[in-house]
């Protein structure tokens, strides 16, 4: 039996996520609110889903940083950001 944990930050704060191996299953605990018990095959399915989501976010960031990519924001927001940047200088 092995146990690892990390404090994961999310939009509502921080959540402790624990991963424990019990026999032939993996127990994932998300704080005291949710527990997921899966076998190896389903753990790999979950891992692939998380990996794919992470890759999609990374590719999206790369796309946004691509030269020639334009951002459309309302003029008033643009002016507010310019003024804030100027004030910070």
What does this protein structure show overall?
A four-stranded antiparallel beta sheet has the order 1-2-3-4. The protein has one domain (2-68). The longest helix has 26 residues, at 40-65. The chain has helices at residues 40-65, 75-88, and strands spanning 2-10, 13-22, 25-30, 34-39. It has 89 residues and is α+β, with helices and mostly antiparallel strands.
Report the helical percentage.
40-55%
Q: Say how many strands there are.
A: 4
Characterize the overall form: elongated
Give average pLDDT, whole number. 85
Largest sheet descriptor: 4 strands, antiparallel
Number of domains: 1
Order of helices and strands: EEEEHH
How far do the termini sit from each other?
Answer: 55 Å
Beta-strand percentage? 25-35%
Specify Rg, calculated over alpha carbons: 21 Å
**Number of H- or I-type helical stretches:** 2
Unreliable stretches: none
Global structural class:
alpha+beta
């Amino acid at each position: 039996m092995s146990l690892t944990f990390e404090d994961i930050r999310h939009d509502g704060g921080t959540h402790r996520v624990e991963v424990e191996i019990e026999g032939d299953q993996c127990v994932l605990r998300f704080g005291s609110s949710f527990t997921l018990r899966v076998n190896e095959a389903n753990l790999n399915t979950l891992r692939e889903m998380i990996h794919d989501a992470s890759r999609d976010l990374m590719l999206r960031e790369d796309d946004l940083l691509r030269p020639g990519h334009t951002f459309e924001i309302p003029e008033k927001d643009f002016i507010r950001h310019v003024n804030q940047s100027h004030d910070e200088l």
